[in-house]
């Protein structure tokens, strides 16, 4: 009888600070890392620092162009974008609905009926998303003192935010980067880069030293097989004019195996990616991001109808909107489960098609 040696893996547990509300000046969450005004764009001399009550330094006040130049992927994708155009709105960033925002406050351990949320604004354009993200996340002034409003429910603190973007273009990327706080910018920038790179990645960041900012990431590229009358090209371009995602016509016969479409037209193969990132300070204060490519589906519908059709239930929330997952780890795992099933379905369609061709 052969004895197989087994290796005992070291146990991994989350640090105590994750289950303790962090003693951080919440005014930091109201201040974008990119803190230059539109008239000062590109004129910053370098990063300054925001100091929290516990003394750790968080970088702040870097210009948008400086930040984009630090990343070849982001710089190549966003190009020489003008933040003023995003702030004022142009035809490029005000006609397509691309995002949804769900802002809530768990109010600690209060029952569901007493939890608060900000009014849902419906689908947002890139310009609309930028305007919403510029609003203060917490009701505190620059000194960290709580500010009261006439209607607390209308302006409740945003401890937990779900932010979902389909077909993120350069305007959507800049809307996120230009409004992200110092606690969000590093992990968010990495998540956007991984989304643009069309590469699979799973990352868990649990810092052992200050500042305590955790990050959970999941990126999975895949291919979508569809039957279309004509090939749909990704309208998002890199600075050299090449599309962000590629697509091809395939010399395959039509069958009934394609998802979402009736079998009339040409078989087309499309690159796509699903990305999920959860970034926060502790189990109460966090933001969940989801990026999904759907440019090859429902391309002939009106903008509002198109967004409604493309935004899948799993993109809004892993569960019903009135019963969201309130803890970041559970939200991340449930979302990854749903996204993985979606990708498995897409790959299954391709495998089925290849089997039909072999048997034909």
How are the SSEs ordered, and which strands pair?
Layout (H helix, E strand, L loop, with lengths): L47 E4 L5 E4 L3 H6 L2 H7 L4 H6 L10 E7 L10 E2 L8 H8 L26 E7 L3 H8 L7 H13 L3 E5 L8 E15 L18 E3 L16 E15 L5 E7 L10 H8 L2 H4 L11 H32 L1
Parallel strand pairs: 5-10
Antiparallel strand pairs: 1-2, 3-4, 3-5, 6-7, 7-9, 8-9, 9-10
Helix pairs in contact: 4-5
Could you list some keywords that capture this structure?
360 residues; two-stranded antiparallel ribbon; 9 helices
Structural summary, described in words:
With 360 residues, the chain is of the alpha+beta class. It has one domain (24-359). 26% of the residues lie in helices and 19% in strands. It is built from 9 helices and 10 strands. The protein has helices at 64-69, 72-78, 83-88, 126-133, 170-177, 185-197, 303-310, 313-316, 328-359, and strands at 48-51, 57-60, 99-105, 116-117, 160-166, 201-205, 214-228, 247-249, 266-280, 286-292. The strands form 2 sheets. Strands 3, 4, 5, 6, 7, 8, 9 and 10 form an 8-stranded mixed sheet that branches. It has a two-stranded antiparallel ribbon with strand order 1-2. Strand 6 (201-205) and strand 7 form a beta hairpin. Helix 4 (126-133) runs parallel beside helix 5. It is globular. The N and C termini lie far apart (49 Å). Residues 36-61, 109-114, 150-154 and 311-320 have low confidence and may be disordered.
Sum this structure up briefly.
By secondary structure, the chain is an alpha+beta fold. The chain contains nine helices and ten strands.
pLDDT < 50 stretches = 36-61, 109-114, 150-154, 311-320
Classification by helices and strands: alpha+beta
Number of strands: 10
Chain oligomer state: single chain
Our Rg estimate from Cα atoms comes to: 22 Å
Element order, helices and strands?
Answer: EEHHHEEHEHHEEEEEHHH
- Please, what is the average pLDDT? 77
Number of helices: 9
Shape, principal axes of CA atoms: globular
Spatial separation of the terminal alpha carbons: 49 Å
How many individual domains? 1
Helix content: 25-40%
Largest sheet report = 8 strands, mixed
Which percent band covers the strand fraction? 15-25%
